[in-house]
């Protein structure tokens, strides 16, 4: 086994390190330099992140940050918790980082994570558990065997579906629509006709930071209005959420890492999509639409279909709706995976009791609890990724 070395980095050095690794192996917008830079720029010292370069052999193989916070679950379970690439601050972590992991090569990530955890276990007694956040089931399957020898209990506290469109072999909008169910394809085409036929519905990408910021504010306004009308807070409630994403939009429109799309009819905008890009990977982070009293007009379905067709034409490999279940995701996707929220826990009596209580509660409400994987009993993420906004 290779010897791994960990080096703590200042925020300035971490920015440079993250940029270099991203050029080597871009994988997901949530592990990009753009995301990290927006977080530390907007949150400042409040983020409280400790950053590490993880090396073996000739050079750097991985990079990650650790947040730290004392938490108390159910008002009785205290925990000194570490957070991978998150701060532990509830307001800041409303960003809901998905597809988490270490930045760098996927090939060496399992052993790099093992090295990071070994360092924390051997030289930092001030923590009880480490939250890996949300990561895909496939990524966890690749990581788990490398961590099996560590004195840590794996606690899967929540799981959610994650729908996506695999774009391999799809050449554009017509190709994409042909692969949908007959009913979904009919609804989209009927809506396009209702807006004034295909030539009257346009998809545009903001061409500069100023335009992107203007469109983004319109998206936020419509998104918040739709959610507030249902008695919900919406994804952009709170000053930090808006400042973070405005920073990302303004600073990354030119690079293409953040893209604001406008869907317009013959006379006025129908809605906006806010997408994040890393390499050929596209994640739809949020949306805001103007709804009509006519149920046949579906700006969300039309907008996503046009955006997916554009992504296919541009040579992208995947359009990810991110985690959460809703009808529009099921209708538009051609694939689904699972996102897991995982904590790695040191041996603590209070954690054993907590897990026993959760198992007892599940057994009391689910007749198949003894046979199924752990259910959803953790905190739900605050960010509502377009659920209900795409009809």
UniProtKB/TrEMBL annotation:
Record keywords: Transferase
InterPro entries, per the entry: Acyl_CoA_acyltransferase, BioF2-like_GNAT_dom
Superkingdom per UniProt: Bacteria
UniProt keyword RNA-binding present: no
Domain BioF2-like acetyltransferase: 182-330
GO molecular function, one term: transferase activity
One Pfam family of this chain: Acetyltransf_6
Region listing for Disordered, in residue ranges: 364-391
SUPFAM superfamilies membership: Acyl-CoA N-acyltransferases (Nat)
Protein name: GNAT family N-acetyltransferase
Upper taxonomic lineage: Bacteria, Pseudomonadati, Pseudomonadota, Gammaproteobacteria, Chromatiales
């Amino acid at each position: 086994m290779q010897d791994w070395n960990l080096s703590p980095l200042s925020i300035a050095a971490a920015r440079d390190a993250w940029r270099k690794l991203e050029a080597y192996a871009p994988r997901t917008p949530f592990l990009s330099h753009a995301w990290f830079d927006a977080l530390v720029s907007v949150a400042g010292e409040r983020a409280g992140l400790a950053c590490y370069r993880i090396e073996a052999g000739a050079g750097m193989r991985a990079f990650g940050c650790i947040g730290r916070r004392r938490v108390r679950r159910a008002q009785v379970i205290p925990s000194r918790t570490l957070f991978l690439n998150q701060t532990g601050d509830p307001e800041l972590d409303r960003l809901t980082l998905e597809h988490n992991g270490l930045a760098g090569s996927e090939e060496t990530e399992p052993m790099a994570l093992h090295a990071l955890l070994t360092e924390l276990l051997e030289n930092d007694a001030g923590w009880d558990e480490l939250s890996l956040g949300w990561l895909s089931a496939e990524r966890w399957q690749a990581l788990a065997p490398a961590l099996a020898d560590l004195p840590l209990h794996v606690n899967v506290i929540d799981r959610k579906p994650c729908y996506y469109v695999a774009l391999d072999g799809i050449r554009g909008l017509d190709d994409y629509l042909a692969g949908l169910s007959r009913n979904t394809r009919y609804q989209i085409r009927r809506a396009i006709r209702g807006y004034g036929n295909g030539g009257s519905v346009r998809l545009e990408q903001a061409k500069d930071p100023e335009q992107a910021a203007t469109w983004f504010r319109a998206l936020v306004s419509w998104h918040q209005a739709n959610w507030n009308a249902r008695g919900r807070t919406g994804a952009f409630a709170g000053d930090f959420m808006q400042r973070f994403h405005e920073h990302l939009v303004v600073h990354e429109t030119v690079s293409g890492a953040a893209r604001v799309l406008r869907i317009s009819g013959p006379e006025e905008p129908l809605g906006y999509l806010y997408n994040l890009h890393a390499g050929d990977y596209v994640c739809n982070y949020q949306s805001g639409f103007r709804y009509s009293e006519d149920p046949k007009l579906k700006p969300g379905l039309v907008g996503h279909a046009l955006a997916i067709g554009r992504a296919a034409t541009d040579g992208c490999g995947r359009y990810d709706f991110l985690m959460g279940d809703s009808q529009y995701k099921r209708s538009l996707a051609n694939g689904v995976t699972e996102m897991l929220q995982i904590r790695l826990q040191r041996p603590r009596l209070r954690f054993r009791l907590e897990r026993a209580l959760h198992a007892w509660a599940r057994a009391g409400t689910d007749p198949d609890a003894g046979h199924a994987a752990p259910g959803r009993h953790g905190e739900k993420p605050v960010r509502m990724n377009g659920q209900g906004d795409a009809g």
